[in-house]
Amino acid sequence: MTAFPEIERIPFEGPQSKNPLAFRYYDPAEKVEGKSMRDHLRFSVVYWHTFRGQGADPFGPGTAARPWDDGSNSLENAQKRVRVAFEFIDKLGAPFYAFHDRDVAPEGESLAESNKNLDDVVKVLKEEQQRTGIQLLWGTANLFSNPRYMHGAATSPNSEAFAYAAAQVKKALEVTLELGGAGYTFWGGREGYQNLWNTDMRRELDNLARFLHIAVDYAKEIGFTGQFYIEPKPKEPTKHQYDSDAAACLNFLRQYDLLDHLKLNLETNHATLAGHTMQHEMDLAGAAGALGSIDANTGDMLLGWDTDQFPTDIYLTTQCMHTLLKYGGLKTGGVNFDAKVRRESFEPIDLFYAHIGGMDAFARGLKIAAAIRADGRLEGLLKDRYASWDSSLGAEIEAGKHSFASLEKIMLERGEVTPNRSGRQEMIENLINTYM
């Protein structure tokens, strides 16, 4: 039985198409900078919003019409949901998906029961992966919904919560390995604080690092070679989360000798909640060699919370793809649609419209970014701006050949700084507009 009988596999029809169930820019086979769009973008559908989201908000229950879901938390319903999910992803033509353990399988009355439920659903996931060729981008564990994690998981003041979280991640890692997952993500949903008066921050950070080192050790023990990611988010639900932005995550990873083991999975809406742009977060991570994967969504600038909307802003997707190309593109990570349809978009077909729009927006951003790079004018302006660092003095400074004393001597002789070139900000903004 099909859940989407009226939907065929989404075709590519080109920019002139008026068919809302067709791609206008995403042609998976089209080559951009010598690599197919499919391989550049590595699109992934998330299980949590797309197949578990009901459109609820703080002011009302869910509105989503999902005829295939009987609303129960039964194992049978969870297994049926897997078949629906893979029908959707297959018809959409996305090569990957991602999930939390509790998204795909119901939590039981005990850890043993929860593990058994997960094993029973993994059998169906494996069958569907083999049937469709769709792969797991990354797995993760939900360490934030259950009341046992009300104070956090790895940073909880309760050592039993830490131990339970460790057992849960152990199982999630085993399942991710069994399903051939390309990576595993740590998102500290409640790893932070509400009030510093009752928080031992140093102990919590030490324990978070300890937790990640244990995970690294266990991955080696079971032969999991996928990439580990940590995902920055500044707030919500806690007032302050320890993984607040890319810089905080990188500092934490360096401080605790974890930078060789984890890269960053960056999300646009989290970047804006932290007061940054996605371009900033990606460039910062890329400069540190830690840009691993991205969660593709956007927030509403008029709302100060995580709205997780589908990305349709071509400037945003161009910035993302230009930065990815600059740092060598995606390898184990992907463009993961951590986005949800609006509460008012309640019909199943809206899931297709939303993902098609997001995939087209990123495909168009990829083509524009490649055109900017091929044209060379932006890179030329950037090179001109830093030309003094390619001169004798700048090159000598970067080569470590100067001290304060030697630089003082040079500037005493020269007397003043030679005016630099204009930043040409408006000209560059105008230039970017010509590619759109």
Automatic annotation (TrEMBL):
Domain of life the protein comes from: Bacteria
Any one of the GO BP annotations: D-xylose metabolic process
Signal sequence, renumbered to the chain: none
Chain sites annotated for binding Mg(2+) 2: 267, 270, 306, 308
Positions bound to Mg(2+) 1: 231, 267, 295, 338
EC number: 5.3.1.5
An annotated Gene Ontology molecular function: xylose isomerase activity
Top-level class of the enzyme under EC nomenclature: isomerase
Catalytic reactions on record: alpha-D-xylose = alpha-D-xylulofuranose
Cellular localisation: Cytoplasm
Keyword Metal-binding: yes
Keyword list, A-Z: Carbohydrate metabolism, Cytoplasm, Isomerase, Magnesium, Metal-binding, Xylose metabolism
Domain Xylose isomerase-like TIM barrel: 122-280
Any Gene Ontology CC annotation: cytoplasm
Catalytic residue list: 100, 103
UniProt cross-references to InterPro entries, sorted A to Z: Xyl_isomerase-like_sf, Xyl_isomerase-like_TIM-brl, Xylose_isom_bac, Xylose_isomerase
Cofactor(s) the protein needs: Mg(2+)
Gene3D superfamilies: Divalent-metal-dependent TIM barrel enzymes
Textual note on the cofactor: Binds 2 magnesium ions per subunit.
UniProt similarity note: Belongs to the xylose isomerase family.
Assembly description: Homotetramer.
NCBIfam families, per database record: PRK05474.1 (NF003998), xylose_isom_A (TIGR02630)
Name of the protein in question: Xylose isomerase
This protein's encoding gene: xylA_1
